[in-house]
Task: inverse folding
């Protein structure tokens, strides 16, 4: 059966455990020998492209990069026809898309002949969530993701696709998640990758206070206020989210040895200050390292490799 990785929510607990294990265990550099992975990016990204291409090459495969200008999903050519074309030449397509429904449309159009990996959509960012879980497990639990149970993680700012995938992944591991965001920027109800529908064992708390979200946290997470596609709202967003900047005073509300996470790119001075991002509590560069780990785990799981 063809395996896809589109959201954290869709994966079974067993499959997620396998992905976490494969991400950091010794691997076979011929897992993808002779097989290609198409990297389709409607939106640009440094870390996503670097981690994806590196992981594929380390597993013995090759990548071809396709930008939005080259493909033009649903403008130059339909998503279905793009999928049908890629399925004739590639075993896996890893996509960074504007519309999450692109994945299901391609899956149906190709009859599940090609595995699909979500490298970011408007709904979810599951490979980032895997990297974040690995980063936290490395720091707090000697690499054991199940050792994170009971940890307190706070997300502050605009609750985005990153927030949803992160929260779903952590809640399923028994981590308590608090999300601090102003009205209009909090988790949206319904849709896929919905933390509110995760039935534990972690506890989800939503609040409109950054202070309340961070109080007593073991880890504090934030992301850009002005993401791609929201540039026209930059002024409003900076005004609305001004009280949710992660700075030294806010970090003091968390536990004494709390760590800082940010999926990058960072807009220094907006959602985070330099002293926090570059300070001793920051794990952002381990997150970058584990973006590659996450892709190794997902690709090995797709090929049904065993550690």
Result:
């Amino acid at each position: 059966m063809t395996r896809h990785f589109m959201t954290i929510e869709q994966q079974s607990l067993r499959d997620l455990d396998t992905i976490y294990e494969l991400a950091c265990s010794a691997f076979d550099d011929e897992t993808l020998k002779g097989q290609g992975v198409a990297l389709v990016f409607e939106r640009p990204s440094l870390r996503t492209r670097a981690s994806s291409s590196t992981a594929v090459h380390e597993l013995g495969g090759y990548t071809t990069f396709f930008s939005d200008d080259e493909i033009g999903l649903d403008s130059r050519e339909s998503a279905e026809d793009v999928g049908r074309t890629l399925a004739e030449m590639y075993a896996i397509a890893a996509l960074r898309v504007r519309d999450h429904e692109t994945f299901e449309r391609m899956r149906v159009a190709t009859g599940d002949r090609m595995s699909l990996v979500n490298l970011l959509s408007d709904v979810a960012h599951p490979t980032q969530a895997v990297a974040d879980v690995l980063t936290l497990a490395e720091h707090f639990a000697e690499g054991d993701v199940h050792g994170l149970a009971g940890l307190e993680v706070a997300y502050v700012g605009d609750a985005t696709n990153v927030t949803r995938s992160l929260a779903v992944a952590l809640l399923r591991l028994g981590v308590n998640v608090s999300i601090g965001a102003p009205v209009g920027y909090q988790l949206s109800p319904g849709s896929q990758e919905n933390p509110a529908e995760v039935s534990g064992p972690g506890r989800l708390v939503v609040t409109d206070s950054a202070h309340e979200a961070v109080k007593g946290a073991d880890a504090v997470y934030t992301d850009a206020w002005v993401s791609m596609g929201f540039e026209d709202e930059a002024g409003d967003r900076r005004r609305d989210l001004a009280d949710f900047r992660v700075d030294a005073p806010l970090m003091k509300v968390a536990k004494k040895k709390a760590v800082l996470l940010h999926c990058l790119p960072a807009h220094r001075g907006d959602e985070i200050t330099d002293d926090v991002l570059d300070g001793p509590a920051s794990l952002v560069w381990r997150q970058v390292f584990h973006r590659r780990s996450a892709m190794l785990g997902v690709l090995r799981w797709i090929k049904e490799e065993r550690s």
Strands lie at 36-41, 62-67, 92-96, 115-120, 152-156, 176-180, 204-207, 219-222, 259-262. The mean pLDDT is 96. The chain has two domains: 13-125+291-302, 126-287. The two ends are 20 Å apart (CA to CA).
